[in-house]
Amino acid sequence: MKPNQPANDKLHPSEEALERGYADWKRAKIERGFIQSQDRAGMISAEQVLRDFGPER
User: Given CA atoms 28, 34, 38, 43 in this order, what sign does their dihedral have?
Assistant: First the structure.
């Protein structure tokens, strides 16, 4: 939050501010996921997922 933002705005944010904050959070989350998906070494293999959560379990 802005350091010089009035206290009332912090306690009762406007609908526009809430939507903007959510949109920023959502975009950052998607960007982090995209960057993470580029590193295949850090991903769990499909075989391990099936072994751990598959129907044979």
Answer: positive
Closest CA to 21 of 33, 9, 32, 4: 9
Q: How many domains does the chain have?
A: 1
Report yes or no: 42 and 36 within 8 Å, Cβ to Cβ. yes
Q: Tell me the pLDDT tens digit for each residue of 24-57.
A: 999 999 999 999 889 888 888 889 999 999 887 6
In a domain? residue 7: no
Full-model pTM? 0.47
Range of the domain at 29: 14-53
